[in-house]
Write a structure and sequence with these properties.
Strand order of the largest sheet: 4-3-2-1-5
Number of domains: 1
Strand content: 35-45%
CATH class: Mainly Beta
Structural class: mainly beta
Oligomer: single chain
Shape: globular
Number of helices: 0
Largest sheet: 5 strands, antiparallel
CATH topology: SH3 type barrels
Length: 73
C-alpha cells in the first residue's frame, strides 16, 4: 500500500461530487489517518489555480496518486 508523506502533493483519482472534488484535482496531504484494520486515509487540502482553498477532505489511500509539478504523475 502506498503511503504518502505530510505536505506531499497528490492527485485525486476518483470523483467525490458531494465534496465538489473530481478526479484530476491536485492537493497537499495535511494529515494521515492510520486505524488498525482499515485502509490508510489522508486529509488532503485542495486548491484552485490561484491558490484559494477549495476544501479539505479525507480520502482513502487508493483514491490518491503521487503528483509532480514537472508533468504530473
Amino acid at each position: 500500500m502506498l503511503k504518502f508523506s505530510l505536505y506531499e502533493d497528490v492527485l485525486l483519482l476518483i470523483d467525490i461530487p458531494e465534496e465538489g472534488m473530481f478526479a484530476g484535482a491536485v492537493g497537499t496531504v495535511v494529515d494521515r489517518h492510520d486505524r488498525p484494520g482499515y485502509e490508510m486515509g489522508y486529509s488532503v487540502e485542495f486548491f484552485d489555480a490561484d491558490g484559494t482553498t477549495r476544501g479539505v477532505i479525507t480520502v482513502p489511500a487508493h483514491a490518491l496518486q503521487r503528483w509532480e509539478a514537472n508533468g504530473g504523475a
